[in-house]
Structure formats: C-alpha cells, structure tokens
Amino acid sequence: MSKKILIISQHFYPEIGSAGNRMKNIYSMLQNSDLAVNILTTDPTYPVRNLYSDKSFWDDEELNVDTENIHRVSVRNKKYSRSIMNRLYYYIEITLKMIWFILRSKKNYDMVFATSPPIFIGIVGLIAKIRFRSKFILDIRDLWPESLKGVNVFNFPPIIYLFKQVEGMLYKSSDKILINSKGFYNYIESISPNFKRKIVYIPNSAKSEEVFPVNLSSGRDFKVIYAGNIGLAQNDKLLIDLAKELNKKHIKMTIIGYGLKRKGLLEDIKKEGLTNVHVVPPLTRNECFKLISQHQVGIVTLVNSDVFKTVLPGKIVDYMTCGVPIVASVSGFSKEIINREKVGYVSETNVTGMIDFIDYLYRNPEKRYEQGMNGQRYVREHFLWEDNINILIDTINEVFNEKSLSKVGRYE
C-alpha cells in the first residue's frame, strides 16, 4: 500500500513566486511517484487575491480538477499588509483553520511535510504529526524569525525569543529538515549540532522545459530586468537609484514587480520622471520566463543584513534558467554562487559598481553569452526538478526505512 503524505503549505498553485512554484512541483512530482499525496493550503491570496480572478494563472488543468487531494482553507483577509497586527491576524486565521481541518480529518497520514515561513505553518505541521502519529519533514525556505529582524519590521525581544524557542522545537521534532539554500546549514547547526544529520539540501529549481535558448543580441537591443518581489528585503531604494542611473545612460529597464513596496516604487518612478522604466504587472511563470529571456541583464537586490547572506533568491535561479547574466547587490551564499559559477557580477550595495558591470556587459555581448551559458549549465547540473525530486523521494524513503528499522531495535 502506498504511503500517505500530507503537505501543509500556505503557498501553492496558482500563486506566483518561488514558494508557490516550489510546492506545486513537489506536490505534482510526488503524485507521479508511488506515494499518495494530499496538500492542505489556502485559497490563492499572494500578493493579492484579485490577481487570481484572471484565468490565465490557472493554467494547469490537472491541478484544477484535483479536488480530492487538494484541500484549501478560505482566508477572510483580502491582501498582505505591512501592518504587523494585520499580518499576524492573517497568519493566525490560516493556522486555526488548518488545525481545525486536521483535527476533523478522517484520514490518517504516514508523513507530514510542512513548509515554512511563516513559522505558524511549521506549528500546524507539528500538531498534524502528533494528531496522525506520523513522521515529520520540515521544509525551510527562509530563516524565520531571523528574517523579521533582518528587515527591522518586528524586533520585539520577548516575541522574538518565543519564536526562536518554537523554531528550535520544530527542528527537534522533525525527522528531516529540508533547506533551499546551503547558507542555512551553519545557522541551523548552531542551534544544535544534533540537527546536522537531519539537513537535506533541495534548492528551488526549474523544469527542463523552462530552460530557454540564450539570447545573444546587439547592443542597441540592450535591456535590463528586475523580476520578482519588491518587499521589505529587496532594497527598493537601491533599485530606484539604479533606475535613475540607467535613465542617464538611456538604457531601458523592465520591472515585473509585486509586493509591499511596489506602489511606493511606482510613485518614485513617476516622481523622478524615469521614462526608461517599464513596469509590468505580475505574470504567469511561463509569461515571466519569456519576458526575462528577452533581456540582457537580470537585477537582484537585497537589504544589507546578516540573515540575507544565507539566502539564494529564486530570481537568481530564474535568470540563470533563462540564460540571462546577473548584476546583483547581494552577499554571502548568493554572491558565492554568482562569482564562482561566472554567471554575473556582484557589487555589494554599490550603485556605481552595478552600473559599471551593466555597462561592461553592454559593450561585451560575447561575455553576456558566456555567462548566460554558464548559468544554464549550472541549472542543468544542480537546479532541475526532474533530478532534485529524486533527492526528496530518497529522503522520504529513508525516513520510512528508519521507522521500520527502529521497530526491530536497530536504532536505539
């Protein structure tokens, strides 16, 4: 009989963004294995609920009709908010409704797979583990609550302390800890060396069909792009300063943006009279990749904070998938990947340095081609879901085998 797995995730198809795409691929590919998989998620609300009234985002008919295995809880909140209290209410509402679903469930599961952030989903996963007496895999896509401190949005010591205690409890209660960035290793191990044996690296990835041919165009077609979240971690001030300098050089910039700071960025673009900037509303993943591939440089910015030295933003993987060289203001693990694999250039929080690198790529199309090819090579070797899902399946089987072995006294 197939093992039964319950995935618990706030984000899922058809939501845009790295989290939704990660969980869509994990769910769909596990379904195609010999595992029986259900998912508990929400109605799509990120970045705003109204976006999903557009049927083009519901482009996977197999998932559209899968009402037996996909369970969604409704959320009253209309959209994300910068207000901490509003966001907290949003998380608590989701948490309570998911817990209620779990307590009322007539099904039993052999394994619970919960993905965080927010940390509340990890709590739901732990409750589900207890309720079903199952194994527990915890998927960590970002360090929470460290990321809250990193963006200076919420740094109330007693609450941060409480969240850190919950974080440690979740790591301790899990059978395996998945991470999407190798930068998380040292942080998790610093909480307890015992967690090291649990950690498995499965990065955000692409499908092989999404790897676009590298675009080698002349200088007159040169355009740069920023694609993805414009939130508290993305350094929107640096992004607008970069757009101003590009405007002076008559270089076009496209922004496919969403998130808390999108509105403010639009206002700044209008205020500065930046006619070189074209802002595009959120697109489906396929549409986004097609547009990215028509550009010659992909921009990445992050706030200068220690916690963001551990992350690998999804847009870095996306740019490499599309064969687009990267010019970034990042540090830590992201910087290491970009420099080591020769897929672009990094200038930490330095607009002048970023402009110099963009100008160099403008004048050297052969270097753009080389870096684009390097990116796609690295994606094929390390960032394909067709390969990385096997790591997850092996991890799941390992956990089940450990459970079986423990029954006969081999793990005491």
Automatic annotation (TrEMBL):
<dbReference type="InterPro" id="IPR001296">
    <property type="entry name" value="Glyco_trans_1"/>
</dbReference>
<feature type="transmembrane region" description="Helical">
    <location>
        <begin position="111"/>
        <end position="128"/>
    </location>
</feature>
<dbReference type="InterPro" id="IPR050194">
    <property type="entry name" value="Glycosyltransferase_grp1"/>
</dbReference>
<keyword id="KW-0472">Membrane</keyword>
<protein>
    <submittedName>
        <fullName>Glycosyltransferase</fullName>
    </submittedName>
</protein>
<keyword id="KW-1133">Transmembrane helix</keyword>
<dbReference type="Pfam" id="PF00534">
    <property type="entry name" value="Glycos_transf_1"/>
</dbReference>
<keyword id="KW-0812">Transmembrane</keyword>
<feature type="domain" description="Glycosyl transferase family 1">
    <location>
        <begin position="209"/>
        <end position="376"/>
    </location>
</feature>
